[in-house]
Amino acid sequence: MGILDNLKNLFGKKEKSDLPFSIRMHFVPIRLDSYKNNSTTLFINIKNLQDDEVLTSIDISCDKELGLDQSCITKRKEIRLGFLKKNEEREVKVPIYCSVTTPPGDYEITVSAIAHYRTYEYVNNSVKTSQKLRVV
Length: 136
Hints:
It is a single chain. The protein is mainly beta. It has a single domain (17-135), classed as Immunoglobulin-like, CATH 2.60.40. The chain contains 1 helix and 9 strands; from the N terminus they run H-E-E-E-E-E-E-E-E-E. It has one helix at residues 7-11; strands at 21-28, 31-32, 38-48, 54-62, 66-67, 76-84, 89-98, 105-116, 123-135. The strands form 2 sheets. Strands 2-9-8-4-6 form a 5-stranded mixed sheet, with no helix packed on it. Strands 1-3-7-5 form a 4-stranded antiparallel sheet, with no helix packed on it. Strand 8 (105-116) and strand 9 (123-135) form a beta hairpin.
């Protein structure tokens, strides 16, 4: 039992049981047309991996060329899910819009699942993931 035995604990990947949530995301349709007003739907599946009931919210953010409303002004959105029981899974649908000024490229959509303590003002833990959306 030396110093090197603990390196895996310090620098290794977190085990699944250490993470508070499991997040899966996908887009329908999977890509958008450039220089047109159109949208895609982001499906977010979040599952509580903790042993207790957790007050949960989701924070979604997108690149500056996309938007979470039809005018592409809103770039960040918080959705409060309430309490998630142990192993409970919820699905959230969020529309992602592009406008006539959106050039082709890959744009990053970031989703953070946040575990709160008592009220939404206090953050206990969070998990962040991102996915690319292609505009052609």
